[in-house]
Design goal:
Rossmann fold; 233 residues; alpha/beta; single chain; 5-stranded parallel β-sheet; two-stranded antiparallel sheet; 2 domains
């Protein structure tokens, strides 16, 4: 029995340190939604958006290090109805120089009769926020954002690839058209991540999924960082 236990103990002694290192590395991964401390005299920028923006928060922050205090809302921005409920808390009372914002993918997703998330349209699912309501909500949100006197940049809604669960190809285009009407009325520039994502879909997006690969999020982050610096000029 002792001879059998010795190799097992040796294996455990070798494996446990590696396991501990892996756990520590995992624990040390930055949380994109964690608050940051401002570096004095740098401009303050706020990102508002859903999981797509969560994915590009850290890459954007890394590229803007030493140039910008890049904050983001502490949650997934969800649909416009969530935005209307929480916008005052997200904006807080401090001054913002630029606000880069988006809503859309959660508005256009299909929900079930009992609130089931990403429920198939073919089985009776309905969009969470109909397009007419989306446009009205977005108009109210922009009016609130303008009160901050920050420079605003609308980031349009990224594509829905074929096969994506609970969403339909082409709906981003329709919702972006509604959003464009709002931005034109308010004189807000649009950061077009839809076109770039559509052209490079197979390269930077996950198959049959609205989300991006890690490398794809880094590509988005590079584009977002560039647009923010332009807005600060």
């Amino acid at each position: 029995m002792k001879t059998k236990l010795i190799p097992l103990l040796l294996t455990m002694l070798l494996v446990l340190p590696a396991f501990g290192q892996a756990q520590n590395a995992k624990a040390k991964r930055p949380n994109p939604m964690a608050p940051i401390n401002d570096v004095p005299r740098l401009p303050r920028v706020l990102l508002i958006g859903d999981s797509i923006s969560i994915g590009y928060t850290l890459p954007t922050r890394a590229l803007l290090k030493g140039k910008v205090n890049l904050h983001r809302i502490p949650t997934n921005g969800g649909p416009t109805i969530k935005g209307l409920e929480h916008i005052d808390a997200w904006l807080g009372k401090k001054k913002w120089d630029v606000i880069h914002f988006n809503w859309g993918l959660h508005d256009l997703k299909y929900m079930g009769p009992k609130g089931e998330n990403l429920f198939p349209k073919e089985k009776g699912g309905k969009v969470q926020v109909p397009i007419g309501e989306y446009e009205k909500n977005l108009d109210r949100l922009v009016a609130r954002l303008k009160k901050t006197r920050a420079r605003l940049v609308w980031r349009n809604t990224t594509p829905v690839p074929p096969g994506s669960k609970g969403r339909h190809v082409g709906d981003s285009i329709k919702y972006n058209a509604a959003a464009a009407r709002v931005m034109i009325r308010h004189g807000i520039p649009t950061h077009d991540l839809f076109t770039m994502s559509k052209e490079r879909m197979k390269e930077i997006m996950l198959p049959a999924n609205v989300h991006y690969t890690r490398e794809g999020s880094e590509v988005l982050g590079g584009d977002v960082a560039k647009v923010i610096l332009e807005a600060l000029k």
